[in-house]
Amino acid sequence: MPFKSQWDNIGIEMKVNLDRLATYLGPWAAGEGPLYERLANAIEGAMDRGELAAGTMLPTERDLAGRLAVSRTTVVSAYGELKEAGRLESRQGRGTWVAGPPAARPPSERPFSAELYGGILGTQPGIIELTAACPPAPPLIAEVMAQVSPEELARDVTGAGTGYLPAGLPDLRERIAEHVSRGGLPTRPDEILVTTGAQQAIGLAAMLLGGEGQSALVEEVTYPGALDVIRGLGMRPVGVALDAEGVVPEALEDLLERVRPAFVYLVPAFQNPTGSVLSAARSRRVAELSARYRVPLVEDLALRNLPLDDGPLPAPIAAHAADGSSMVIGSVSKVLWAGLRVGWIRAARPVVERLMRLKIGADMGSPLPSQRLTCSLLPRMAEAEEARRAFLIHGYDALSAALGEHLPDWIWDPPRGGCTLWVRIPGGDARAFGQVAQRCGVNVVPGQVLSAEGRHGDRLRLPFVHPPEVIAEAVRRLAVAWELYAGTGSRPQEPVSLIV
User: Fold this and answer.
1) Which of 177, 192, 230, 290 could serve as 187's disulfide partner, Cβ 3.0–4.6 Å?
2) Alpha-carbon distance 68 to 18, whole Å?
3) Any residues with CB less than 8 A from the CB of 190 and at least 6 apart, and which?
4) Which regions of 125-234 does DSSP assign to beta strands (E)?
5) Which residue from 196, 155, 497 is spatially nearest to 340, judged by alpha carbons?
6) What 8-state DSSP symbol labels residue 164?
7) Taken in order 289, 181, 270, 144, is the CA torsion positive or negative?
């Protein structure tokens, strides 16, 4: 009589969805040992956690191999190992399913958990996030926060009336003006509008200057948040050529002539993502072009205070008599803490007044407690900048060393400042590779996301804002992902079918 499983009596009706199973497996390929063993361990871990209950039908070897971008042999071997261990059962014509009650597993053998890094890896369990280029808060934040007296906060409560200050706390506008002036752009407090972070500043500037159906010039790769704002307004971003010295003036002039954009958005100091700096000569030329064509310039200086080298930093473009409707954007998010949500726009007073009306429509004014804390922090910006520079240099050294060890064929130009490397991968498509990397426990930003035209598919933006041990682990996982993507990571060997 043929063997009958206990499940033959009730029928196997539960079947796990492919995408759900992939989620259960998490960054399974980042473990040690042969690839099929890592997959077997991950499936077993899902059983032990109760995510794959007894009787659950698993996908076919071919379907799972396609979803995980591995060879069918890898899945066959993983299933086979679990059958030998009594964790899976199968029958020709009926498929493979989870066998009887799961056994306890020692904690040391459990799959990778975000708890290993104290929950700093992001919202998805076990995933290292290389998507946000924002450093953590330095100890200075907690120190100054503890020193802000109740009397100071009470003074804001009683002195600010309703609490709606659309242009910002007067004390903060004064200190921001002093900070901007020290950077080479003389500024008065009435030329400052406090915003809820630099992202809102970009949004307000774009709303004031452009509208649906118009175009905006940006560097050929740029901050993706700005691209989101421009596209969200129904505008078309157009990329301007970029090299090691920043945006190319000749390319900018050609596009100003042909496209007639509503405005130009540039990140001239430690450009995101390349880390380049617009030279002094080019800054003057860009200012001249802005004035001649009467096209306002939105100059994003949110990264200006993040140098990695000792090279001189030119004055802002606006210091060279740019068009009177131009604006300069700043923020404390990178040097201090993004959680403060404090940014600003520096512009001529009439422009600030028009921006303020838009700000009223957006949120009536940024929260005063954050502004008060920032007001107390700005006098210590030099100290914060020095500490942040040391932190980022340490992170850059860790990332470049790990890439050199595990992915020596990946190349980049050393950035002069900022938080990111603009890395060229030796082949393939960055967006497709990013999907494989996610399955190995790392989220990355492909080059296409930062491009106005969806180009640069051979690039990744990799930030160095995590502790060195997290950076090292992230690169190790990227190396595993690259093996899989390149077709050399399966064992036994067989060509990898990539379905992304």
Assistant:
1) 177
2) 9
3) 173, 349, 352
4) 128-130, 192-195, 215-219
5) 196
6) -
7) negative
